[in-house]
Amino acid sequence: MNDELQKAEETYGIGKYKRHIFLCADQTEAKCCAKEQGIESWEYLKKRLRELNLAGPEGMVFRTKANCLRVCLRGPVAVVYPEGAWYHSCSPTVLERIIQEHLVGGKIVEEFLFARNAL
């Protein structure tokens, strides 16, 4: 393996994560929500995962900002793997529930779930 890639794997703790959350935010063409709303949700997610020590190489959650998850309704939209739980309306308040109940507690937040595609 390339030394740079191996260092990146170690730096980001890839392979240690239990869950991966993708959040549609900062879209090129905002359709599912206002661009500012998506950015606010992204910043909240980053901050809370850091505060709870869930992010980074020692954490259990990997996060990715997606330009668009192609479900342009009731955004911001998020998907959590490996469960493949798709969530709508991911405001900071909803993200807090997803963080506490799903990412930490392992229980899907049915109220905001609109699709499932477990891997």
Descriptive account of the structure:
The protein has 119 residues and is α+β, with helices and mostly antiparallel strands. It is built from three helices and five strands. Strands 2-1-3-4-5 form a five-stranded mixed sheet, with helices on one face. It is globular, with a radius of gyration of 14 Å.
Keywords for this structure?
alpha+beta, 5-stranded mixed sheet, 3 helices, 5 strands, 19% strand, globular
Order of helices and strands: HEHEEEHE
Percent range for β-strand residues: 15-25%
Largest sheet: 5 strands, mixed
The helicity comes to 25-40%
Radius of gyration, CA atoms, in whole angstroms: 14 Å
Shape category = globular
Annotate the secondary structure layout.
Elements: H1 3-12, E1 19-24, H2 35-51, E2 61-66, E3 78-81, E4 85-87, H3 92-104, E5 113-116
Parallel strand pairs: 1-2
Antiparallel strand pairs: 1-3, 3-4, 4-5
Summarize the structure.
This protein is of the alpha+beta class and 119 residues long. The protein has helices spanning 3-12, 35-51, 92-104; strands at 19-24, 61-66, 78-81, 85-87, 113-116.
